[in-house]
Amino acid sequence: MYGHNKSTSVDAKRLLSILGVLSIILGLTVAFVVGFREFWRFYLFTGAVESALRLTVPMIPILILIVLVGVVIGVALLIAARNKRLLIIFSVVVLVAIVLISAFLFWPQGERWMEEQRYPLRFEALIVRYSEQHDLDPFLVKGLIQAESSFRDDAVSPVGAIGLMQIMPNTGEWLAELMGISFETDDLFNPAYNIRMGTFYLRRLINYFGHQDTALAAYNAGMGNVRSWLNDERYSSDGETLHTIPFPETRAYVERVNEFIEIYRRLYG
Fold first, then answer.
1. What tens digit of pLDDT does each residue of 209-232 get?
2. Which of 38, 50, 115, 148 is the catalytic position?
3. 233 carries an active-site annotation
4. What is the residue-averaged pLDDT of the chain?
């Protein structure tokens, strides 16, 4: 009888140990799946690995919480297989930690903090100054900068566009002549110069095409492409607005900028 009880006890401890290890593995797996899902969603949205990674970073506290829960349960089970008194002490301490972390993450200020990390705002004074100078909505400029460079003044695209508003050097040289200012390619890394030139260009596009979304399409795909689309009944029924944008990248870009405009207006308006 004693031998049978001892065997049952050993089996119970072994089961608890196995469940403890599985709980830790499950926590790590769920955190990975959730993190990768968020990264993939942002990658499909932005089309850029770097931007997707930056947007996923604010999820790290939640991923850590998921791992922590799995590890806590797993360690608790492993401890339970050896010492029930230690289990009680450990469980109380960790439970308090989880409650505090969860309260921060899901408290409105915690959620706002994560959104602000995901959608940063830099150079606001410059944005407001040059938006007012060119009669633009500052939130339009903020949304465009977020879509173009994620507010990185040192950003360089694979095709060579530079700075916050991602201006190509040849476009910058042309715009500098129109604006009556000097131009060097490295000037595009200067936030004030880049925003001044980018807002000038955006206002010029809006004046030329007459509609904000059409101007945004031209900012991304070029004026020549947009002019040809407006002259094609497959894409424009009135020659002034686009009911269909044939380039998937440009179509997604316009949608992205408009979404960012509303996000920045909600967070910083």
1. 999 999 999 999 999 999 999 999
2. 148
3. no
4. 85
